[in-house]
Amino acid sequence: MSPETQSETPVGQRKASNGLDPTRDRLERWHSRVLGFCLVIFALQIGIFLTAFPWTLWWEMNWIPVHSPKMSDFWMNRFFRGAVSGLGLLNVYVAFGELFKQLKSIFFSAQK
């Protein structure tokens, strides 16, 4: 599309330099950011829960150690609790990594 025909085209119908509609490109970026922040919130909540829950009284009163004596020893084992807490810390790490990635994309795309 030449520059003279582009000026005759209405703004809503113009194509970006990469061939995409600018409003669609902006909508896809917005959609990606919202999903990214939803991932941050979800991973952070799951991570905090998995980190703290194995060390509470509710962990001991769960139905697994009460109804299954064989699983009770495994469920109450400190190594198993630590492994579950480690998964929680991994979720917290993923949440902060995604948060920094989202913030970086917001602030560095604004400078362009």
Record the SSE blueprint.
Elements: H1 3-8, H2 22-52, H3 57-60, H4 63-67, H5 69-76, H6 78-111
Account of the 3D structure:
This protein is mainly alpha-helical. It has helices at residues 3-8, 22-52, 57-60, 63-67, 69-76, 78-111. It starts with a helix and ends with a helix. The model has no long low-confidence stretch (mean pLDDT 83).
Q: Using the CA coordinates, give the radius of gyration.
A: 24 Å
Cα shape: elongated
Helix content: over 70%
Low-confidence runs: none
**Element pattern in H and E:** HHHHHH
Largest sheet: none
Number of strands: 0
Taking the alpha carbons of the first and last residues, their distance comes to: 24 Å
The number of helical runs is: 6
β-strand percent reads under 5%
User: Structural class from helices and strands?
Assistant: mainly alpha
Mean pLDDT metric? 83
